[in-house]
Design brief:
47% of the residues lie in helices and 12% in strands. It has 303 residues and is α/β, with parallel strands linked by helices. The protein has one domain (12-251): Alpha-Beta Barrel (TIM Barrel), CATH 3.20.20.70. Helix 6 runs parallel beside helix 7 (177-186).
């Protein structure tokens, strides 16, 4: 992995869960993916990108599209940013094959969300994550987001999952700071915030970094906030976080990818439409978003 990775933050501090750009007719825009990845890394200073995750609309992309986009992003920025491949599904065998494909095209790591819809028991979660970790020699992150998957990773279960030597991080979008503290105390895996509004609170209790959606727009500011907090400038970090509150609110007034793609379009960056069952932002939603982003002092948006 790129040289900024540390044992405490093995994928870097600031990562964004990148959208999958599509052309106006809904096809995968591979060149747009490379251009956006380059912008995020070189202009906004991202340490890494998660490709083919929830914000990448992985529920509606094909295996072939996922491999094509992942390969393209690795080629574009893989020498200077950590490229994490989202390989999660509710079919363990499918996730195993996706992990192997990610290895073949040069991903630095894999991330797998808890299986969704089938709501496995905790034992099933352990076996699922361990099977994916066994499939390659890549480091792996688990992703706990029960509001989407229908099942939470219990702390006792996470302790067992973390016993696997290649499972080295957890992306936490559980929204439970009590559970987060216990998870950090009882495991030695790196903790990443997966819920933008809780980025600073999670950093304050020991998280290593963030995997952000609003990072598409303010990744440089999030990284500055994390650096300020790590250096002991708690008030400075608090001030930066408060200035970002309108951005957090604005992007998540509806599904995050919908409004991120709307914002990227306003900035002239690759994004394109979303795929059904998601729907593109309405004119009214876009107007509210612009006001939110202007209130958050996002470059390219003014009151």
């Amino acid at each position: 992995m790129p040289g900024f990775a540390t044992p405490q933050a093995p994928f870097g501090v600031m990562l964004t869960a990148m959208i999958s750009p599509f052309t106006p007719d809904g096809a995968l825009d591979v060149a747009g993916g490379q251009a956006l990845a380059t912008y995020l890394v070189d202009e906004l200073g991202h340490d890494g990108l998660v490709i083919n995750g929830t914000t990448g609309e992985s529920a509606t992309t094909t295996d072939e599209e996922n491999v094509d986009l992942l390969r393209a992003v690795v080629e574009a920025v893989g020498d200077r940013a950590t490229v994490v491949a989202g390989v999660g599904s509710n079919d363990t065998a499918h996730s195993v094959q996706s992990a192997r494909s990610a290895l073949e095209v040069g991903a630095h790591a894999v991330m797998a969300v808890s299986p969704y819809y089938n709501r496995p028991p905790q034992e099933g979660l352990v076996r699922h994550f361990h099977a994916i970790a066994d499939a390659t020699d890549l480091p792996m992150m688990v992703y706990d987001i029960p509001k989407r998957t229908g099942v939470a990773i219990e702390t006792d279960t996470l302790v067992r999952i973390a016993e696997h030597p290649r499972i080295i991080a957890n992306k936490d979008a559980k929204g439970d700071l009590d559970a987060a503290q216990w998870g950090m105390a009882r495991t030695d895996i790196a903790w990443y915030s997966g819920d933008d509004v809780l980025n600073l609170p999670l950093l304050a209790i020991g998280a290593a970094g963030m995997i952000s959606v609003v990072g598409h727009l303010v990744g440089d500011r999030l990284k500055a906030m994390a650096r300020a907090f790590a250096s002991g400038d708690v008030q400075g970090a608090m001030d930066m976080n408060r200035a970002l509150l309108p951005v957090y609110t604005g992007v998540f007034r509806t599904q995050g990818v919908i409004l991120v793609k709307a914002a990227l379009a306003d900035l002239g960056l690759p994004g394109g439409p979303v795929r059904l069952p998601l729907v593109d932002a309405t004119a009214e939603q876009r107007a509210v978003l612009r006001a939110d982003l202007a209130a958050g002092h996002v470059r390219g948006f003014s009151a």
